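Translate sequence into structure tokens.
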Amino acid sequence: MSGMKKLRIGTRGSELAVKQAQMVADALVKKHPRLEVELVTISTAGDVRTDLPLCRVNQVAGVGDKGVFVAAIEEELASGAIDCAVHSCKDLPGAQDPRFEIAAVLPREAMNDTLVLKPGANVDAPVLGTGSVRRSCQIVSYWSGRARAVQLRGNVPTRLHKLVESEEMDGILLARAGLNRLGFAGGEWEFDGKRLLALDLDCDAFMPALCQGAIGVETRVKDDSVRELVRSVNHEPTELCIRTERAFLAALGADCSVPVAGYAEQRGAEILLRTLYFPGEGRPLVRLTRSGPSNDPETLGANVAQQLRTF
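Result follows.
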């Protein structure tokens, strides 16, 4: 096992991101009690440009096809300022920068989205805040055109605060994993002195983002000592599902502007991949479910993406 004594972990500075980085740090220290871990917070384009929809931040910030929450952190990783980086796997672009690899993933949390509502909200035709094109498209289909999406950006506490203060919004959509990690478990809680209700949505009825609920640890390629250390906390069942979902995203060429959703599940020697795709205005949404051997998750992901391209 690696003889490293100190590890510098890069992370975004949001409360949730730091919590997730600390989860990785705690898992590593549990395995390697003598290891010293330092969290290094890094500001990303997605954190700075909260005035824009996520699908426009890449263009304005000049980060190309990089994930808006990823590019700045990867540059610090490339420079050697940090030894590894912790990301929400759903923030990572499908195509991996060849300088880096996802060396480990922690056990996956809940994958589903959660509808957070004010008491007395109009649940039959709600106005819902979101910054996600995936969620915006599903809001229309899930409520059969009765609901309306309004633009909402910011970290989890910021979005909850905006919901409480808003006279327009009935609710917002958030990932259950993030809520749980921040202590907002269950179906009802107080925030800013107001009572909020949380309704978990079924993953098939309202599909999550690919890789939602998973935390990934990114390292430099060929940095064997860091990779060996990080690999010690890898959760293989989660890794197989994430490899499937990321291969699907890479083959589809999907980024945050593409309304696509789905998730993979390992079932013994097979992996089942469920996907949802909105091909364009005026065209019906497409659902595809396919399975393949768990020892070749990338082929399954790529094949499903190629089938979707035919619609």
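Note: Residues 59-66 have pLDDT under 50 and may be disordered.
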